[in-house]
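ingest -> validate -> predict -> emit
validate: passed (alphabet ok, no gaps, 373 aa)
predict: started
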Amino acid sequence: MVSQGRSSAPMEVDPSAQLEEDASAGPLVSFRVKLSKLGTMAWETYRRKPISHWILLFISSGAMLVAFPVSSLLSRLYYADGGKSKWIISWVAVAGWPLTALFLAPMYFLGKYKPTALTYKLTLSYIVLGFLSAADNLMYAWAYAYLPASTASLLAASSLVFSALFGYFLVGNKLNSDTVNAIVIITAAMVIIGLDSGSDRYSNVSNRQYIMGFIWDILGSALHGLIFALSELVFIKLLGRRSFHVVLEQQVMVSLIGFVFTTIGVIANRDFQEMKMEAGSFKHGEAAYNMVLIWAAIAFQLGVLGGTAVLYLASTVLAGVLNAVRVPLTSIAAVILFNDPMSGFKILSLIITFWGFGSYMYGESTLSKGSTS
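emit:
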């Protein structure tokens, strides 16, 4: 929006001269100048968008910050209260796919959008991504079966490392020193958790099961990074555009195919028959069992919708900020709700992970500025 009632434009200032002036001032004055500039830039950004944009962005960010930690905590609650099936939890992660489809349908019937034509290559890519998504959910289910939720969420943060690496090798995304720094830092945080692995193991989990949960979490994070890079490759090579409804289409198709693969696994493992027995022996009863699974499915899809909307309304940098914030949120909530042990090593790992996210986001913002200049 253009400001009205102003007849004169502000005088142009030479950026290099301004930087020299800021540098020559004291550190406190320089910090105040930078803070003032940041506030001015934020205000100008706010004025360029209608209020509806910011309301949607606020709701989407809130959904991402709340829904993903809730789905992780409910997955852990399922196992803590007597659930045993890994296939059921991985099935729940994609069982809510019709919720995303409900958001997509009005865009076809009430808007000007048309469904993207399914070519052979696009269909094949959705099948591959759906299969990988089903495998990824199964790996995370194994992780949450044996690891505390706080530890599992910290390890899952390593998906950023794999996303950056696969994006570099498969998509050709650029890496700068800040991104490499983030990769090293987050890797160091994972090593610290590994060195402290015995401090937070549940009494009913064997050492071998804990190690397997650790490995499956890292493998799931690696696969998640690969899925992210392949999804970006599909947009570049096959779709050629990244509008909101196209992103939703991809999410619906991948979740639907993942749901089909996971359902086959559940049927083959006879877990649907075991659900009634599990519900009967669940700690807080059958109703609680059903509520945990239903809300886990809803929460996961709301998190996906929120993340998709943030990417479309803002940027990958903001999505990265929110993704970084939800890691400590999940860990703190797990400590409060499940009494997860929080050792000094885990706190150190949490701080280092947050630092790594910050370095990555700064590097991404630098690359974005360089590409637009």
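The mean pLDDT is 84.
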